[in-house]
Amino acid sequence: MAQRKKAERKTGSIGARLLRWGTIIVTSYLVLLLALVSYPEVFQPHLIYLNWIRYPSVNWSGDAQEFGFRAGTVRSIKFSTPDNVTLGAWHILPRTSAPSVLSLTKGGASPVGKESVEDRDVRFTKALQSAGRVFLYFHGNAGNRATGHRTDFYKIIQDLGDNTHIIAVDCRGFGDSDGYFASEYGIQIDAVASFDWIVAQGVSPSKIVVVGHSLGTGIATYLAHNITVSRGIHGGGGLLLLAGYASIPDAALGYPMVPLLWPFKHHPSLATKAKSFVVERWESSRNIRDTHGWPVLLVHGSRDYEILPWQARNLFLQAVSARIGTEAVEPPEDAVTALAPDHEEGSHLEYEGYDIRTLPGREAWLWTLRPNKDADAVVRGPKDIGNVWYLEVKHGGHNSLSKFHVVPDTIEAWATINGL
Ligand SMILES: *[C@@H]1O[C@H](CO)[C@@H](O)[C@H](O)[C@H]1NC(C)=O
Ligand SMILES: *[C@@H]1O[C@H](CO)[C@@H](O)[C@H](O)[C@H]1NC(C)=O
Ligand SMILES: *[C@@H]1O[C@H](CO)[C@@H](O)[C@H](O)[C@H]1NC(C)=O
């Protein structure tokens, strides 16, 4: 009897405890939502940019050897925006600019060691002026330009041909750049200032490939849109978007790292309402429509669970629609994954304005704007062939795209076909 009473008391207290914790969690969630809706400009940026996650800690005056780069191939640079914010960035030379170990064993020269900071800057600036291509890279949220998978990406780009350089920027609030507060308005200024800094060094805009990863794809797409709209059609060399999204509201709704909007995502009208409260917007699916003259390459992993592939497909369809002048339609659900292996019957789909094919072994799917046989240069620009590509990597995830050889191979093919 006494034992039963004890057991009852115990279940009672567990129930009460669950109720108490449930109440605390639900109340905190509602308070957080209320704060995000009532003071959006104050609270939303902290959850979207996550720039208070300051990892890894880096000696920015060093030459990034600890991240695996050859001595003398990376320098930190600083430049100012028109509103007087100082930004930090890395200028990364092609891997071949380091003297070969074989030549060193034979007494060959290396600039490292006896070089002053001034001499180093002269060497890097001269090299930049004769670069074949310059990749201007905007990273995703959290961390800084030295975060692991980002340096992996610079290394695959360093190995591309044609004297390829990288400028990897930390926008305001990140890394060694000024400020603790990131915002769409400020970062837009940073993006244009970064492009202008490269041009001011003596690089032709047609050699600049604007690159974004994850959150950075919104920055890159905005920049291409800005240059096109503000400065005329053929502003830059190319736009490369890795793990891109249609807009921040779309990304936020499904983002598992900050699942605040998940309760809304299965109800279309609630989802629309929730999205309308997001103030940092980065409307890429709209901005990408204004990138005529920019060759576009989108790369996404089929196993990206942070930003699902439909968002990159949406960007592809928007870019294609703007170029062909009619709204490109989506392929039916599953038609793409069901494509037969390459070179077999049924390995290729044709839609209005674009084609989808599998690469051998179905390692990836390549969607391409169909070359315009009528050479309608006004609509598609002179860099017609290969103008918009979308590569979906079957085993690729959100941060792991650099480890798939098909990614640099496709970037090289896309750059070459577009005369970059
Ligand atoms: C950072 O790097 C510079 C240049 O290599 C070096 O002189 C300095 O001692 C380093 N600082 C720290 C704290 O390691
Ligand atoms: C930026 O700084 C320069 C030099 O210190 C100054 O002349 C200029 O007025 C400043 N501009 C703004 C927008 O604060
Ligand atoms: C492009 O950027 C500049 C500099 O930030 C800005 O003044 C201009 O309004 C922007 N243009 C567009 C179309 O966004």
TrEMBL record:
Superkingdom of source: Eukaryota
Gene3D superfamilies per record: alpha/beta hydrolase
Transmembrane segments: 21-39
Record-annotated AB hydrolase-1 domain positions: 134-226
Keywords for the protein's UniProt record, in alphabetical order: Membrane, Transmembrane, Transmembrane helix
InterPro entries named in the record: AB_hydrolase_1 (IPR000073), AB_hydrolase_fold (IPR029058)
Protein name as it appears in the record: AB hydrolase-1 domain-containing protein
